[in-house]
Amino acid sequence: MRGISADLGIEEAREHLATAGADVLIVGHTHHAFEVIVGERQRILNPAALLRSPAEGATNPPATGTFGVLELPSLRFRVKSASHGGEVEILRRALG
Fold it and tell me: Which residue, 18, 44, 17, 15, is CA-closest to 32?
């Protein structure tokens, strides 16, 4: 199994988007929120994990993680805290 991370290059990003047949690919399960912008209208997005942040440890209650909100047609992507609803900073990269 090969995961998708924020450090991918432009050719790899284009390959993932082409394989999915999509302009926007939403991935997850890595616990690391990011947005990779490919050109003007293509995106690879990761809202991280809803259940918990790995920095908080496994003993905390569920829903301490994050979730994503993608606005269409603008493609504005925000990641919010599941516990308080506030927006959280994420890694954003623009490729070509």
Answer: 44
Domain count, the chain: 1
Give all strands of the β-sheet with 76-81 in edge-to-edge order: 66-71, 76-81, 87-88
Q: Evaluate whether residue 4 is within a structural domain.
A: no
Please tell me the distance from the alpha carbon of residue 30 to that of residue 71, in angstroms, as a whole number.
22
For residue 49, give its domain range. 10-95
pLDDT digits (tens, 9 = 90+) for 14-73: 999 999 999 999 998 777 899 999 999 999 999 998 776 556 565 655 556 899 999 999
Residue 1 included in any domain: no
Helices (H) and strands (E) in the chain — how many of each? 1, 7
**Residue 83: inside a domain:** yes
